[in-house]
Amino acid sequence: MQTYLTSAWLTRCNTPMEPLNLRTLCNRYDIKFNKRLGQNLLLDDNIHRIMAEAAALDPADDVIEVGAGLGALTAHLCRHAGRVLAVEIDRTFMPCLEDRFIEHANVRLFRGDILNHSLPKLIEEFLPGATSYKMVSNLPYYITTPILFHFLESPLPPTRIVVMVQEEVGIRMTARPDSPGYSALTAVLACHASVDLVHRVPRTCFLPRPEVNSCIVRLRLHETSPYPGVETRFLTTVIRSAFLQRRKTLRNALTRSGQFGAPKEAVLAALDAAQIDGGRRAQTVSPDEFARLAIEIRARI
Asked: Exposed, middle or buried: residue 201 (CB in 10 Å: 0-12, 13-18, 19+)?
């Protein structure tokens, strides 16, 4: 279900806002925005509240936040969750974060690139004893997909993810088969979670103002795989191979892929066994159909 903000909210957000506290913090800590790191700070604190609510946090929850920035979202998370690990790659934000949360015993700070660190090891060090957690983040748009899959494919994935992403990406994440936005990302995410778009966030709500609108997307991870007959990693390989050349038919894309070691005869036999027309293109194939096909391919290699 795609739920967007009301027109009244949009009008309010498009009204010029005086980001006094934000500007004060930036001046105090001599913070310069780094375009390379996709840094755009959110001006409307109401959006942080919406994100925290979408995560359904309670005092028993541990949370990882990627890209803490000046700590605006962190402040909401630590009020509702038991413990928060706030990760920030840019060293210039750390003095501000340290000053803001020095008296918050439930906030841990870590400076580094989340993609270069094992999540189980970070959790062991900063959230000891945690057996589950949630991830809530305003993600840098240029590495949204790698960060999502870093969490989804971790040996210790979160139970829920709530992220701010570029609106175009959010639409792709929630698209239906045979629609313009449906992609490998859509189908692969469906293997891991139920995905819905929570709110649209206009670009006027950010400083500096980006060129695109944003949205909040929620992923509620499956407790058990919806496709127990096939390993998720293999299913992901089949999906990505099918979409690698979108203009090709499934038959041609998969028999020429070489990604999963299945000979042409095995792929053709698997398509027949799964009752999927090899002349279709990947964007018309549902996650359930991909799972059926992956099971048949795996049985033949």
From this structure: buried
Domains of the chain: 7-221 (3.40.50.150), 232-298 (1.10.8.100)
For 52, 80, 201, 216, 294, the CA distances from 3, given in Å and listed in that order, are: 16, 24, 11, 10, 33
| Sign of the torsion formed by the C-alpha atoms of 72, 77, 80 and 82 | negative
pLDDT, one tens digit per residue, over 177-200 is 999 999 999 999 999 999 999 999
Q: In degrees rounded to 5, what are phi and psi of residue 99?
A: -65, -40
Q: Is 282 exposed, middle or buried (0-12, 13-18, 19+ CB in 10 A)?
A: buried
Q: What is the pTM of this model?
A: 0.88
Provide DSSP, 231-297. Answer: -HHHHHHHHHHHHTTTTSBHHHHHHTT-SS---HHHHHHHHHHTT--TTSBGGG--HHHHHHHHHHH
In this predicted model, what pLDDT tens digit does every residue of 202-231 receive, in sequence order? 999 987 788 899 999 999 999 999 999 999
Nearest alpha carbon to residue 86 among 30, 48, 127:
127
Strands 62-66 and 83-88: parallel
Beta strand pairing call for 206-207 and 41-42:
antiparallel
Helical pair 72-80 and 94-101, crossing angle rounded to 10 deg: 30
